[in-house]
Design brief:
Bound molecules: adenosine-3',5'-cyclic-monophosphate
Helix content: 25-40%
Order of helices and strands: HHEEEEEEHEEHH
Oligomer: single chain
Length: 136
């Protein structure tokens, strides 16, 4: 197993994946290191990518408000891709971070092949949308 595959195996979203599925995810996802302060996505923009944090932390903000802090295993960018709406928040690295990045197409492909992941992503969207609606 490569170090990338080992990192993917440690992501809760992929906890139930087989060896073949982990290999598929490794093929579809890029692993990249980003510096602290880097903006992963900006509120209002069109969404094209899905991110999973392997290491480090990122802050989710809307205007001046901090909605959440994401750490290893956390993911972001799913709402614009699933619901085809503009980015609902800005996500900024608050430390140097190591992330997996999927294109919209790679994300859709994994959702259709991995029902457990799909379910977990949709459940999280429901929770986040509810939390965000409660604030405004
Ligand atoms: P998206 O709308 O594509 O881009 C901004 C992202 O911020 C969004 O997807 C979610 O991944 C994330 N996000 C929005 N609201 C919350 C929240 N309440 N908690 C955690 N993450 C959130």
């Amino acid at each position: 197993m490569t170090s990338k595959e080992a990192a993917i195996k440690g992501v809760p979203l992929f906890a139930q994946c087989s060896k073949n599925e982990i290999e598929l995810i490794a093929k579809l996802a890029d692993e990249i290191d980003l510096p602290a302060g880097k903006t992963l996505m900006r509120e209002g923009e069109t969404g094209r990518e899905f991110f999973i944090i392997l290491d480090g932390t990122a802050e989710v903000t809307r205007g001046d408000e901090v909605l959440a802090t994401l750490g290893p295993g956390g993911f972001c960018g799913e709402m614009a891709l699933v619901d085809q709406v503009p980015r609902t928040a800005t996500v900024t690295a608050t430390s140097a971070i190591d992330v997996l990045v999927l294109t919209g197409q790679g994300f859709s492909s994994l959702r259709s092949r991995l029902p457990n992941m799909d379910r977990a992503v949709l459940d999280e969207i429901t929770e986040r949308a509810r939390a965000d609606a409660g604030r405004s």
